[in-house]
Design brief:
about 20% helix, alpha/beta, five-stranded parallel beta sheet, seven-stranded mixed beta sheet, UDP N-Acetylglucosamine Acyltransferase, domain 1, 20 strands, globular
Amino acid sequence: MRTEKEKMIAGELYHAGDAELVADVARAAAWMDRYNASIAMAADARAALLREGLACVGTGVTIRPPFHIDYGYNITVGEDVFLNYGCVILDVCAVTIGDKTQIGPGVQILAADHPRDPAVRAQMLEFGRPVTIGRNVWIGGGAILLPGVTVGDDALIGAGSVVTRDVPAGATVVGNPARVR
């Protein structure tokens, strides 16, 4: 029988109140307390904290606190990536950010999702869908990326956009829902 954590990472229905997952969220919260207090630390000290809290972090990564995550162990960040203040990543399953991507303040990357069927939702079950962001992407401040989207290399997402479906490589999308311009 699969654990709730195994089901979560696989994108299957799982119960977020499972003791192992609650402990993982608590661990991530303690890490966020330390990371979000690191704003005055040297860049190398913050980089060490990022490597401790996330699955994989490339060189030259800057993530400005405050930064909020669910678990951390499902987040992979490429080289020379920049996240501005106040970003949120709900990483119940894989979230991948490609090299040289720049993300504005207040961006939300949401892999967490909920069943549409009210009877299933009433059982407190959730699921996730991976989010993949390519290389050299620019995401404007306040944008929201919904579960399951893939953003192609060199794409641009306008500030405040809500990305509900995949973004082709090189495309510029804006609006709610985000549409190719």
